[in-house]
Write a structure and sequence with these properties.
about 0% strand, about 110 residues, 4 helices, mainly alpha
């Protein structure tokens, strides 16, 4: 994804005062969001609605590459803050069915 020229100017402003002091993308992203016009903020990724962990989109990846080209610093997010793509949403009460199965087996063992 290409970054529009007006947004590159805004990123360059943030590079001016953040520079190479951090490599944490979430800190840089917060500064960029505060510096971007409100209609452009939606280009950034949102957190996953259930796990509340971050999911990077194409625009985030483009910003990380642009930041690396300009500063030489590769931005990253720690793995425990990223959403697991193999995560599965389980319906309400899923653990209760497992507990009931264990109880049935235990009851069958006691009565046999």
């Amino acid at each position: 994804m290409n970054i529009p020229a007006n947004l590159k100017e805004r990123i360059d402003e943030v590079i001016g005062y953040v520079g190479d002091t951090t490599s944490d993308y979430l800190l840089v992203k917060r500064q960029l969001i505060n510096n971007f016009p409100s209609q452009s903020r939606s280009l950034f990724s949102a957190r996953h609605p259930c796990t509340k962990k971050h999911q990077l989109n194409e625009f985030d990846e483009a910003v990380i590459l642009y930041w690396h080209d300009q500063t030489g610093v590769r931005l990253f997010i720690s793995p425990e803050k990223l959403h697991d793509p193999n995560w599965k949403h389980r319906k309400k009460g899923w653990a209760l069915s497992l507990l009931n199965e264990k109880r049935k087996r235990r009851y069958a063992e006691l009565n046999s």
